[in-house]
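ingest -> validate -> predict -> emit
validate: passed (alphabet ok, no gaps, 395 aa)
predict: started
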Amino acid sequence: MKKLILTNCNVIFPDHIEKDLTIVCEGKIIKEIIPVGDTRPNENAEYIDVNGKYVSPGFIDIHTHGGGGHDFMDGTVEAYLGAAETHAKYGTTALLPTTLSGTSEEMLKTFSIYKEAVKRNKKGAKFVGLHIEGPYFSYNQRGAQDAKYLRNPEPEEYNKILDATDDIVRWSLAPELQGASDFAKVLKSKNILASIAHSDAIYEEVVEAHKAGFSLITHLYSGMSTITRKNAYRYAGIVESAYLIDDMDVEIIADGIHLPKSLLQFVYKFKGSEKIALCTDSMRGAGMPDGESILGSLEKGQKVIIEDGVAKLLDRTAFAGSVATTDRLVRTMVNIAEVPLVEAIKMMTLTPARILRIDKNKGSIKGGKDADFVIFDKNINVSYTILEGNVIHKN
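emit:
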């Protein structure tokens, strides 16, 4: 069995950092974590001297549409592989390929492509399931989602989709739409994570949605209601609901642009690292230079512009997804939001793993868990990305 030994590590655990450790891996699994000097030389092992850099669990991105010039809506295996390899360069070891609002036919086509991509993915971040974002969204909160595809959830459509694959692990939708509550119950019965997104719901509707099975809020503050007035009365929206419902998880696009410093700090102060997952929500422009790009598929997507570290609609009235990578999210939380490194890493590893229910094997460095690591310096510059004991990126 292949052995990998990381030496001279500053290991980031969920609640502290410990210096001068050695991590011994056998095959895909972490075997033990011991003080430097306690391991015997092994000529059959691959050694990596970390030289005092940080060793973190692999970063887990629960919401990404692509990167490196590729979008998962392109409908090709090559797009999946290209995006996965791009994100691996920045520390991502696991990700959820995410769709945009489109036709049922496009979604159904995606499923066979996804399965083939899983088989052929040797150099990129691991695919851990599909995230369907839309098409069941509020028109008023559509953001960059194409309005012509928006509709209410109908059993005839979503049951056909769910019967076609067992790879969907998350579905984002607006809970106030007719039929959404029944759909959420179906998702819960299939162990699929129901997430609130692009929605005009008020607090009372969010409470009912939570009872029906919604447990996560997609990209908090982006594409959602806040305090509104109806007939002179004020109503709390989704933003307020995120804080009022204690066990509601949230994800945030921590690129420093979608949310400024003050909001990053506000979310962290009131939700804490145990309830926040950092996500890129990246489109194909992640890891690419500024200029024109396309949100969604090359064939049917929308033209957007990449500038100022973010993707925007051409008229610049709204953001069109981020161009962030996971290392940037961590760097932003540490340098801009002034969050301790341990807490920032938890929001990029253990919390998303728990939300996806894969924390038994991923999300922290512990004997018996998967040997997924990111090695980086004090500026979060990634030098190694290791997935299940194999180096998939070396800088």
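The longest helix spans residues 104-120.
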